[in-house]
Every structure is written in C-alpha cells, then in structure tokens.
Amino acid sequence: MQHAAVPPPAAHVSKIDLSDTQKGTTQRYWVHLVNNKLGFPMRVPVMVARGAYDGPVLGLTAAIHGNELNGIPVIQRCFEELDPTTLHGTVVGVLAVNVPGLLLEQRAFNDGADLNRIAPGDPKGTGAQVYMYRFVHRILQNFELHIDLHTASFGRVNTHYVRADMKNEKTARMARLQSPEIIVHNPPSDKTLRGAAAEFGIHSVTVECRDPLRFQGGVIEHALDGIQNVMVDEGMVPEGAVSCPITDTVLCSSSAWTYTDEGGFLWVFPTSGKRVKKGDKVAEVRTVFGEVTRTYHAPDDAIVVGKSHNPLNQTGSRIIHYGFEPQAIPCITDDEPGASSARFLA
To answer: Where in the chain is the domain with CATH 2.40.50.100?
Structure first.
C-alpha cells in the first residue's frame, strides 16, 4: 500500500504575510488571533498557494458561522487541485474563520456574538470584536478578490445562491461566475465580512451553499466549479474554461425574510427555489391540538431563496426568505464580448 507524502507541519504565525510562502509552493499556517481563558492561543487554519507567477490574490473563507460546514471541503478540494508551479497569483484559504463556534457546533462566537454582524471589529472591544478585528487586519487585508462561503443556519434550508452588489461590474461578474441557482442584489453596506472587505477595496461575494451541519456533495462540487471559474476568468490557471452547471440563474433585485406573529407548529409549503405568486398560501401555524391559528400568503410575486423547516415556532420565527422581481439571466458564457455583467440592474 502506498501512502501519500506527509506535508510539512503548519507554521505558527501571528499574521499572514504572503512573502513567507515561497513562489510555486503551498504552505499551511495556524494564525494566532486571541487567547482563551487559560491563556492558550486560539488559532485559525489557513492555507496559502503562492503561484510561481504574479497575479491576483484570491481569498476563500468558510465557517464564519461555526455550524456552516460545506465551505470547508470546498476549500480543501480547491487546494488539492491547485498546482502552484503553474498558478498565476495566490490563493488563500481560511478553512474556519470562527474556530470557537465550530468547536461548539454553533453559529455564534463563544461569547454569543455573530461574527458576520460586527466586522471589521474593534481592537478594544469585546472578545468577538477583537477576534474579528485581528482576523480582518492579519488575514483578510491580503486579499484582492474574496469568496465567502456560507450555508443556512439551524432550522433553515437554502438554495445555492449568491449575495453580491450587482451594480458593481467586478462583483457582478464574480457572482455570475458562480453559476448559482439565484443571485440576490445586495450592496455590502453592513457589518458583514463582505462589507468589511468592500471597505478595503476587496471585490467580495457571499456564496450560500445550502444547509448547515452537514457535507452535501452536489453543492460542494458546484461551489468548487464557481471558484475555478473565477480563477480561469482571472487568468490564474493556464488551462480550463468557464463552465455553467446551471444555464439560467435567477437574479433578484432584493430579498427579505417574513416572520410569524403567532407561536405553534409551523408548516411551510413551497420548496426552496419555487416561484410563488402574490397571495399564494405559503404557510400555516397550528396549535398542539392541530387547530390552524394563522395562515400566511406571499406578499408579492417572488422566488423562495430559503425557508424554515423547523416546525417548532415561537412567535417571531422566520418563515420564508423571498427574492423579489426574479428574472432569468443567461450563463456568462453566452454573453457577447464586452457585455456588462452589471447591465441587468442598470
């Protein structure tokens, strides 16, 4: 039996400096951000493939929410297939942004904060704020392009969809290169990691890879295709062509969740990805005795981007994530030369 070559041990560092990785090689790092209550370091696992040739820096991040796992094997597979000796540019893969949350199998950081709502953090703030600040300044700032890999959270399911500023030509093109089921136009004017990246001039998109706390082979392969499409489009790899596993992505001008106003057992009827008409019955709430106490209807013509599948519903629980003004747009390979990817919302 042949055994795979054992890679060198990961280096322990306090920040990512791309010059620490020799050209034409891949290196693994444990990046120290903060200490735990016993004074031991909390470290983030990072891989860097530095190409033999100059080119852009593409950053990949996964598990900023600790229960969102599909992005981890996407990054692993990406690095398995990379050849740094022929690569133009650098790929940085952060396998788990929220290490404390991942170890606890929970969405939030270990102090209860949502890391994707406090970026770029605060060097003098709470534990989560300091962790986020150091992540942004010690790792994220190296990127020029960024793909942030997510899934739905507990009790919810997602389509394979992308959030991006579709009025920005670069991010619109990156979003379409993912060939997702749905793209939601969403300018990065918030406290997300994508928003922090945009503040530093980094072109960033968020890719939602279906469901939490599991590995789902189909969407892992599909997300990997999207990353490879970006590398092909940017000239980072010497061979390959852009592929479109989905030929008609649906673009939405905006999106929003709806919420219950009555507790009980929740039934949500349409499947993820289904189009609904204004007024369609989409959900109902029943008491423990089976009596219907509330029914819910689609507020407008829309597509179901994601939905709750947890029947246990306290008043104020999520029902459906709607994408509004859905329109089918063609695969990017069907564009005429020089066509703008941002033209659909112009």
So the answer is: 256-324
Contact predicate 276/303, CB 8 Å? yes
Q: For residue 163, give every residue at least 6 positions away whose Cβ sits within 8 Å of its Cβ, in sequence order, or none.
A: 183, 184, 186, 194, 205, 206, 208
Token digits of residue 84? 């740094």
List beta partners, residue 330: 248
Please tell me the CATH code under which domain 11-250 is placed.
Answer: 3.40.630.10
Pairing label, strands 41-50, 25-35: antiparallel
* Cα distance between the two ends of the chain: 59
Distance in angstroms (rounded) separating the CA atoms of residues 101 and 113 = 10
Within 8 A by CB and 6+ apart from 43, the residues are 12, 30, 31, 32, 33, 99
Tokens 């673009």, residue?
A: 251
C-alpha count within 13 angstroms, C-beta hemisphere, residue 80? 8
Q: Which residues contact 132 (CB under 8 A, 6 or more apart)?
A: 115, 118, 119, 120, 121, 122
Q: Which amino acid is at 128?
A: A
> What is the C-alpha radius of gyration for the chain, rounded to an integer number of angstroms?
21
Rounded-to-integer distance, Cα 183 and Cα 303, Å: 11
Does 2.60.40.10 match the CATH number of domain 256-324? no
The number of angstroms, rounded, from the C-alpha of 7 to the middle of its chain's C-alpha atoms is 28
Tens of pLDDT along 241-290? Answer: 999 988 889 999 999 999 999 999 999 999 999 999 999 999 999 999 99
Q: Write down the pTM of the prediction.
A: 0.96
